[in-house]
Automatic annotation (TrEMBL):
Residues 390-497 form the CO dehydrogenase flavoprotein C-terminal domain. It comes from Cyprinus carpio (Common carp). This is Xanthine dehydrogenase. [2Fe-2S] cluster 1 binds at C56, C61, C64, C86. Binds 2 [2Fe-2S] clusters. Binds 1 Mo-molybdopterin (Mo-MPT) cofactor per subunit. The active site is at E1228 (proton acceptor). Residues 573-661 form the Aldehyde oxidase/xanthine dehydrogenase a/b hammerhead domain. SMART domains: Ald_Xan_dh_C, CO_deh_flav_C. Its cofactor is [2Fe-2S] cluster; FAD; Mo-molybdopterin. Substrate binds at E791, R866, F900, T996. Mo-molybdopterin binds at Q756, F787, R898, A1065. Pfam families: Ald_Xan_dh_C, CO_deh_flav_C, FAD_binding_5, Fer2, Fer2_2, MoCoBD_1, MoCoBD_2. Belongs to the xanthine dehydrogenase family. Transmembrane segments: none annotated.
Length: 1298
């Protein structure tokens, strides 16, 4: 008999068992283990181990990775697995040993080689993701001391990094592999450093960013020993949840009968994300160690796998079976293994159990999984193959992504023939609700006794097109793409089977084909299929070139040397302190935000009575509690701290609760309040709504040069085009965080904030509190990434936290959850461009362009202006006019993001340049080169181009990439392959450096010299991983003539350097570097009398710019940064997937202050641009609710997305006289070079379209997702699925297009 609610409550009041486990070799006994607490929360708050970071709370980013070791009785051995601490329930760790990043080494004692190598290989920038990456590698080495590069890449599938671009991480850890790091001059074909053709030409060029010989060897004796004592039913009772770990199947069944609604948890990969749905499971059963559920045995028909067997163990079992059994029996096993490669990350596979969404398995399990409440799944059976089986999965990103469509296909033939006996095809993602695969069984009349030939193929495709119909409003959207995929995947299966039949039966099978063209296509398809049956993730390689510092210079002068990031070792050991790592204060409160659920409405009332009764709630704070002004805003005070009576978008902050947090208080408090609305039905959710209703903010910006009207009269050809560039989330690994501490006197408030704009935070907090700015101190130690997202929108959180601290007179802390951060803060502005271009057809010279740009709101005027400043990119257009409009919508305000509007403006320029090339029938690189600027030319805003180096970058990039040879190879490949095509593109960039807002081009620095000779340096910039502090130490070291070891930076603080500009716009090294230089020069002048008295002594002994839009005059930028990139890609015309084969980048950074950091910025910026232009896509509901909030739905580039071959060269002999020590800004300019990948994709699509008889310009919006690529490769299969009228979910997708 099941228990009632009252009886369950009584059970919850009983005493639970002691939880015993080890952390870093120390025994922990928790007498009151809370089932709702995760391991991550326990480590950080109870044990003070803050090296393990919170990045997403859904197991998608890997920042919380650590190692869990346990004795597995069914395997009779100790296993070491990387695990996501944010998902692991504390109660699941009984008799386990946990190892965190602090437990394997430290700066103070001894570094572990895993920690040392990522730091010295320059694989850490902001450092927030570094502990998780370190622990993924450490766990791999504990299980496999000599891994292959494939093992390392697989281990990192569950880890994300937003800064580095991944290449230095992989190169640093390549040294652990069997082959080591360098090929030793053996001439590896994939990017050998000695065969790249660039070294000998430049004797002062080097590419040695670190010395591998200095690395410590891997020492197994340094590892923590598994506690011998960790070699019955357990109950853990929490406030709201009872956790029971049964020890036998009988006991589990009895418990399931007693608690029929209990949730079974093994890896917690589903329940761990329940906070997104506000779900509560009062009783949890954990059957991980029940013998019957861990069974693995071979049967007559296949392999039986217990329901608690993890995916990692399942993979090991299937790999062993594939090696042992005949090939014809193991095709299902191989298909499952191929799906496992791309299912989640390694951390999830280590704990997730085997009844997951895999093709074929799920269709087999359909009846078994339709369980009653009192039943459990005991095991599954994976069958042997009876020949000819394939499985497919298509997702936006190859690694760790949710499938769009999956399929399992199996066909049987009559003996020794190609006559079909039976066929079974299952599809996932084609049902109204994508929980289970939709199984399609073809009628016997269609296949019975039919030969496997072209006629059968055509009928099958027609049948699929009819049967696989989806409503235009089907959940998930992408209806046309999904329907086309069902046919494309079947076509792949058809060709695969035909190939196998040819091998089994001989070539006489081809006599059934009547179409000679089909045979040709068949042969070209298998020219690659026979080389690689499965998708191969090639090991990436890289080349880095920079100008070496001439020998003989002062050894203390480190400017120009690739020194390691100053905090890299602390990043790798977890000792680097971020905002939420600050120890909790006594009586500290946590903050829970109350936000709008409507996009545009009036607030009628907020009933907080139920919420205030929740234990731990201290105060409810709203607009009426603000002591100062409720108006706020990064530039103009056009927003409110809390909503007064009206909201303008979903997740607008209405109010907040201050809580003394327990396990569940903050998580559930905001679901207790009751809101009553007067809804306003006029909602503009997307750009097209604003454009259709002419809903724009003022002012409208315009820029013009030349006589556009006359230009259109003189040229002989005109083309029109449109392009939409989607938005992008910054996805810094550390979400926005603030700790506010009231000091008790005169309204003083101290803030610890993760922000790029310390002074702006100080000013807005002071305004809200009604106190002078000198009463507020804002401190920034470091950030776990920013990219512009913490320049303006971080002040929203800081202000509300400060108000709560002021009201309660207690310290208040708030770190936003990932979904909250994405909903509140906005991202890169979506951008729509419409252009008209006049050009001379014969010479492909562009004479006039008109562009109209529409941009979403948020910091928008400056974003729009910079887009107009870059609407020409690198091309000299005699007559050009651009007009920009700011759309008024009911979506959250957007924020600055690396590039600040420049990439969007340049992307539109490259779109019309591509269209002109297609119209002229000329190679795109020739058209681009023909129209490029030259030294001394003037921009549309009348600024002369001095020290113009883009032509030098172009020529070096052509040489570095072997462009001409590469192009010939691409053309040959495309002639030989029908369903895969390669594309090649070379793209330049010209990026203006400086703030366009005059008053922001300032900086300050404070330098203290102490009596022992040490130097304390403070400046106005903030450290977010870009290495700014490191560069500033280098500047001070060179100026003062002392070693870097004598100089230290503690933090950025408004009480040491006031009135600072945000760390943004790529100018921080320029501005703060000069401020540091001036401060050091001032000190040297003061020290000069002491130096004169003792000239032989040592250091210890001596102890502005503007532009006017109205007149189109002035100097908009201090200087320009230039770069060129060549990229080669390969697309799959049937699915839309693409691979990044090669990228060469030449970047002008002047005389680099630190080549290692600058190359890291180039690679990191390029990878962010790769996400912007090919992968990252924001999806909203029609009423403005963001669906893609978190790594589960929003995908940024991963380790597997970096180009297989990546070459980066810093342009030599190009000093910049307008910045500190002849350097140049490098943060933002490289991002746009990823457009070379986009246009390489477009080049490949052009070739594919030509195969179908389609030529000339075509529209391809950004990002170039698999859906857009496949739909653009029009062929006979897409014609079977014409696009229907847009429905509900189509609108979700198509907010990015017109």
């Amino acid at each position: 008999m099941s228990f009632t609610v009252e009886e369950t409550k009584i059970k919850l009041q009983s005493t639970g068992d002691d939880l015993v486990f080890f952390v870093n070799g120390k025994k922990i006994t928790e007498k009151n283990a809370e089932p709702e607490i995760t391991l991550l929360t326990y480590l950080r708050r109870s044990l003070g181990l803050t090296g393990t970071k919170l990045g997403c709370a859904e197991g998608g980013c890997g920042a919380c990775t650590l190692m869990v070791s346990k004795y597995h009785p069914h395997q009779n051995r100790i296993i070491h697995h990387a695990v996501n601490a944010c998902l692991a329930p504390l109660c699941s760790l009984h008799h386990c040993a946990v190892t965190t990043v602090e437990g394997i080494g430290s700066v103070a004692s001894k570094l572990h080689p895993v920690q040392e190598r990522i730091a010295k290989a320059h694989g850490s920038q902001c450092g927030f993701c570094t502990p998780g990456i370190v622990m993924s590698m450490y766990a791999l080495l504990r299980s496999n001391p000599q891994p292959s590069m494939h093992d390392i890449q697989e281990a990192f599938q569950g880890n994300l990094c937003r800064c580095t671009g991944y290449r230095p991480i992989l190169e640093g850890y390549r040294t652990f592999t069997k082959d080591g790091g360098c090929c030793g001059g053996k001439g590896q074909t994939n990017g050998c450093c000695m065969t790249n053709g660039c070294i000998e030409e430049h004797v002062n060029v080097t590419q040695k960013l670190y010395d591998q010989s200095e690395f410590m060897p891997l020492d197994p004796t340094q590892e923590i020993i598994f506690p011998p004592e960790l070699m019955r039913e357990l109950r853990f009772v929490g406030e709201r949840v009872l956790w029971i770990q049964p020890c036998s199947l009988k006991e589990l069944l009895e418990l399931k009968a007693t608690y029929p609604n209990a949730k079974l948890v093994v890896g917690n990969t589903e329940v761990g994300e329940s906070h997104f749905k506000n779900l509560l499971y009062p009783v949890i059963l954990a059957p991980a160690y029940i013998p019957e559920l861990n069974i693995i045995q071979h049967t007559q028909d296949g392999i039986e796998v217990g329901a608690s067997v993890t995916l990692t163990v399942l993979g090991d079992v299937l790999r062993a079976a594939v090696k042992k059994l005949p090939t014809h029996q193991t095709e299902v096993f191989e298909a499952v293994l191929e799906q496992l490669r791309w299912f989640a990350g390694q951390q999830i596979r280590n704990v997730a159990v085997c009844h997951v969404s895999l093709p074929e398995i799920k269709s087999v399990l359909y009846k078994l999984m339709d369980l009653k409440k009192t039943e459990i799944l005991l095991s599954i059976e994976i069958p042997y193959t009876r020949k000819y089986f394939s499985a497919f999965k298509q997702s936006p990103r190859k690694e760790d992504d949710i499938a769009i469509v999956t399929s399992g296909m199996n066909v049987l033939f009559k003996e020794k023939s190609n006559i079909v006996q039976s066929i079974r095809i299952s599809y996932g993602g084609m049902a109204p609700v994508t929980v289970l695969s939709k199984c399609i069984s073809f009628t016997q009349s269609l296949f019975d006794c039919r030969q496997w030939n072209e006629e059968l193929l055509e009928q099958a495709c027609t049948s699929l097109a009819e049967e696989m119909s989806l409503s235009p409003s089907a959940p998930g959207g992408m209806v046309t793409y999904r329907r086309t995929l069902t046919i494309s995947l079947f076509y792949k299966f058809f060709l695969t089977v035909q190939h196998k039949l040819a091998l089994d039966l001989g070539m006489e099978v081809f006599n059934t084909f009547k179409n000679l063209l089909f045979l040709i296509l068949f042969n070209t398809f298998f020219s690659t299929l026979t080389q690689s049956r499965l998708f191969q993730l090639d090991s990436p390689s890289g080349v880095q070139l920079y100008q070496a510092v001439p020998p003989g210079d002062n050894s203390d002068d480190v400017v120009g040397h690739p020194i390691m990031h100053l905090s890299a070792l602390k990043h790798a050991t977890g000792e680097a302190i971020y905002c939420d790592d600050i120890p909790c204060y006594e009586n500290e409160l946590r903050l829970a935000l109350v936000t709008s659920t409507k996009a545009h409405a009036l607030i009628k009332s907020i009933d907080t009575s139920d919420a205030m009764e929740v234990p731990g709630v201290v105060a409810f704070i709203s607009a009426k509690d603000i002591p100062g002004s409720n108006l706020t805003g990064p530039v103009f005070n056009d927003e409110t701290v809390f909503a007064d009576d009206k909201v303008f978008f979903i997740f607008y902050i209405l109010s907040e609760f201050s809580v003394q947090e327990t396990a569940c208080t903050k998580k559930h408090i905001t679901h207790k309040d009751k809101l009553d609305w007067f809804a306003n039905v006029c909602v503009h959710s997307f750009q097209q709504d604003a454009i259709a209703n002419k809903s724009f903010y003022q002012p409208v910006r315009s820029m013009e040069r030349g006589d556009v009207a006359q230009g259109f009269k003189d040229s002989d050809h005109i083309l029109h085009g449109k392009m939409h560039i989607g938005g992008q989330e910054q996805f810094y690994l550390e979400t926005n965080c603030t700790v506010a501490v009231p000091r008790g006197e005169d309204g003083e408030m101290e803030l610890f904030v993760s922000t790029q704009a310390a002074s702006k935070t100080q000013a807005l907090v002071a305004k809200a509190l009604g106190v002078p700015a000198n009463r507020v101190v804002c401190r920034v130690k470091r950030m776990g990434g920013g990219f512009g997202g913490k320049e303006s929108r971080s002040t929203i959180l800081s202000t509300v936290v400060a108000v709560a601290a002021y009201t309660t007179k207690r310290p208040v802390r708030c770190m936003l959850d990932r979904d909250e951060d994405m909903l509140v803060t906005g991202g890169r502005h979506p951008f729509f461009g419409h252009y008209k271009v006049k050009f001379f057809l014969q010479i492909s010279q562009i004479d006039a362009t008109i562009g109209r740009f529409c941009i979403m709101p948020g910091c928008t005027l400056f974003i729009l202006e910079r887009a107009l400043f870059h609407m020409d990119n690198s091309y000299n257009i005699p007559n050009i006019h651009g007009t920009g409009y700011i759309c008024k919508t009911n979506l959250p305000s957007n924020s600055a993001f690396r590039g600040f509007g420049g990439p969007q403006g340049m992307m539109i320029a490259e779109s019309w340049m591509s269209d002109v090339a297609l119209s002229c029938g000329l190679p795109a690189e020739e058209v681009r080169r023909m129209n490029m600027y030259k030294e001394g030319d003037f921009t549309p805003f009348n600024q002369r181009l001095d020290q113009f180096t883009i032509d030098l970058c172009w020529e070096e990039c052509m040489q570095l990439s072997d462009f001409n040879m590469r192009k010939e190879a691409v053309e040959q490949y495309n002639r030989q392959h029908r369903w895969t095509k390669r594309g090649l593109a070379i793209i330049p960039t010209k990026f203006g450096i400086s703030y366009t807002a005059v008053f922001l081009n300032q900086a300050g620095a404070l330098v203290h010299v102490y009596s022992d000779g040490s130097v304390l340096l403070t400046h106005g910039g903030t450290e977010m991983g870009q290495g700014l502090h490191t560069k500033m130490v280098q500047v001070a070291s060179k100026t003062l003539g002392i070693p870097c070891s004598k100089i230290h930076i503690t933090e950025t603080s408004t009480n040491t350097v006031p009135n600072t500009s945000p760390t943004a716009a790529s100018v921080s090294s320029d501005l703060n570097g000069m401020a540091v230089y001036n401060a050091c020069q001032t000190l040297l002048q003061r020290l000069q009398p002491c130096i004169d008295k003792n000239p032989k002594g040592c250091w210890e002994d001596w102890v502005n710019l503007g532009y006017d839009f109205n007149t189109n005059s002035g100097r908009a930028f201090n200087y320009f940064s230039y770069g060129v990139a060549v990229s080669e890609v390969e697309i799959d015309c049937l699915t839309g997937s693409h691979k990044n084969l090669h990228t060469s980048i030449v970047m002008d950074v002047g005389k680099s202050l630190n080549p290692a950091l600058d190359i890291g910025q180039v690679e990191g910026g390029f990878m962010q641009g790769l996400g912007l232009f090919t992968l990252e896509e924001l999806r909203y509901s029609p009423d403005g609710y963001l669906y893609t909030r978190g790594p589960g739905m929003y995908k940024i580039p991963s380790f597997g997305d970096i180009p297989i071959e990546l070459k980066v060269s810093l342009l030599r002999d190009a000093p910049n006289e307008k910045a500190i020590f002849s350097s140049k800004a490098v943060g933002e300019p490289p991002l746009f070079l990823a457009a070379s990948v986009f246009y390489a994709i477009k080049d490949a699509i052009t070739v594919a379209r030509a195969e179908s008889g389609l030529t000339g310009p075509f529209r391809l919006d950004s990002p170039a997702t698999p859906e857009r690529i496949r739909n653009a490769c029009e062929d006979k299969f897409t014609k079977l699925n014409p696009e229907k009228n847009h429905g509900f979910y189509k609108n979700i997708k198509q907010h990015n297009g017109f």
